[in-house]
Write a structure and sequence with these properties.
There is one protein chain. The chain is α/β, with parallel strands linked by helices and about 280 residues long. The protein has two domains: about 100 residues, 3-Layer(aba) Sandwich (Rossmann fold); about 160 residues, Glycogen Phosphorylase B (Rossmann fold), CATH 3.40.50. The protein is about 40% helix and about 15% strand. Strands 7-6-5-8-9-10 form a six-stranded parallel sheet, with helices on both faces. The protein has a four-stranded parallel sheet with strand order 3-2-1-4, covered by helices on one side. α6 crosses α8 and α7 packs across α13. It is globular, with a radius of gyration of 19 Å. The N and C termini lie far apart (about 50 Å).
Length: about 280
């Protein structure tokens, strides 16, 4: 009975969760077994929700986490994880993160496009919200996980002010810096934010979770890369902007420690280049 089920412990940041979705389809078709996702946070569940290649999503607590650990130790079940960070991807690879995840379990990836499945009511709600805005562009200007990925607030505000014909709608956490000149929709649920991206004209933001969401819906994205590599975390549907700096990528080496070069890789990203990228789409 147990061997007819594949247990997958969801791992990583929210972006990694999105990047793992193409593997679920391949794994389901290859093994033809029930797939059960084990999630340590409800945010993971929000991303995986409604995915047709997942049979069940279980939120872990102290009790069931212990039970699964015991069952795995007794070899009654196998729990896998797509934890590719241990391979130091930006230092040792020059291929997409999803392909690197597939290497862990010999899974061949036919398509690198992330897969997010919204519900009808979620689609309708997003369309209703956005219909009152002219040329809506979603902006995601902060990430709590990696401070070295941040572009200056001043540059964001100058960018928004330089294109008044577009409506910039800011999403993200409520505790993130508010960008002047944007429509403030910070604090929405992950599902609502993903739906807004799907029906916007474009997304402009950092290399983070929402950039992968834009790729899932094939919405044009202008994505700013600093300590990470677009070869690994970029998408063909996005315009990936990166300054040429000798010490980048450093994300697998530096993690979130203080950058000794004052995050030069982000500081050198030219506002004009970002603006022209937006206008080009």
């Amino acid at each position: 009975m147990y061997r007819k089920i594949i247990y997958i412990k969801a791992w990583g940041g929210l972006g990694d969760i999105v990047l793992s979705t193409p593997l679920l389809k391949e794994l389901k078709q290859k093994e033809n077994k029930r797939i059960v996702m084990l999630c340590i946070t409800s945010k993971y569940k929000e991303i995986y929700d409604n995915n047709p290649y997942i049979d069940s999503i279980l939120l872990l607590n102290k009790i069931n986490k212990l039970i699964f650990r015991v069952l795995a130790n007794l070899k009654l079940i196998e729990i896998i994880s797509f934890n590719y960070a241990k391979l130091l991807p930006s230092m040792l690879f020059e291929e997409h993160a999803t392909k690197i995840m597939g290497r862990l379990y010999n899974i061949s990836i036919k398509s690198l496009t992330p897969q997010i499945y919204l519900k009808t009511e979620e689609n309708l709600e997003a369309q209703e919200i956005l219909k009152e805005y002219k040329h809506p562009i979603i902006i995601h200007a902060a990430t709590s996980l990696y401070k070295n990925k941040l572009w200056s607030k001043d540059k964001w505000e100058k960018l928004v002010g330089s294109i008044p014909s577009y409506t910039f709608i800011q999403i993200g956490s409520e505790d993130e810096d508010r960008i002047k000149g944007t429509v403030n929709l910070q604090g929405l649920t992950i599902r609502k934010s993903m739906a807004l991206i799907k029906y916007s004209k474009a997304l402009v933001g950092l290399d983070s979770f929402y950039a992968h969401v834009a790729a899932a819906f094939e919405v044009p994205g202008i994505v700013l890369f600093g300590p990470s590599s677009p070869l690994i975390w970029g998408h063909k549907t996005n315009i990936n902007i990166k300054a040429n700096v000798f010490c980048s990528p450093c994300i697998d080496l530096l993690r979130n420690d203080t950058c000794p070069h004052e995050v030069l890789c982000m500081d050198l990203i030219d506002l004009k280049e970002v603006r022209e990228a937006i206008l080009s789409i």
